[in-house]
Amino acid sequence: MNLVIQSPEPLAAAHTKPLLGLARGSRAEAVDAHVLRIADADPAQRPDLEVYCATHALDYAFVKPGLTLRDFGLVAMDMDSTLITIECIDEIADFCGLKAEVSAITEASMRGEIKDFNESLIARVALLKGLDASALEHVFAERLTLSPGAEAMLDAVQAAGLRTLLVSGGFTFFTERLKARLKLDFAYANTLEVVDGKLTGKVVGEIVNASVKARTLREACAKVGIPASQAIVLGDGSNDLEMMAEAGLSVAFRAKPVVRASASVAFNHVGLDGLLRLF
To answer: What is the spatial distance between Cα 33 and Cα 159, in angstroms, rounded to a whole number?
Structure first.
């Protein structure tokens, strides 16, 4: 396998020799100032590489030689804490003074400590009852920020002809605006019920949980005319695991431990554009 080492800062030349030795590779090539590629690396060396890279704030990935971005047909992304830096529901809750309470439930759910995502979401949304719906616009305009490298990643995958899917256990208010802003092909999320300009504390229709995310991925792939094995999935929480398991390449982005352990690749330090440097 190729071993791709990435750093958010310029990668010191002093790392080349120890990484080549740890990987038991045949040669090392500096792709650019931030990326080192080691050929013929041994995936069995993953535990030692994990320790070294964690110590030096590096990200590593084993990649099949010759694999290109064009071998894939779709990139699917989670929204909260993946495509964007915030958890929208936590920021909405801040407008009714309940951010800490809601954030604690969100964190436990994403770590996989709350097994029933539907129950978790219903409980959090219920706490928003009576909040003026204008709070959603405030969150989008004032607090929502794209994750580092998001636009560069999307520009490149779209230029390569890949289609894009945003699938979220969050809310359509945000996914639809991001879909338009970023020219995404598909978006699917939960719908908050609003009556007379206020949130009712309820979700309308189907709740987008882990199994629905996986189904949405399959449906988007079918529309594009590819198997799920030609999809790349990026996520951070336990409700992303099912769709990540169906993908040809799964990327855990600044993710919870249970997700990092299951994904093909984990980015703990570099931005979403780290995806481009794998190929």
So the answer is: 24
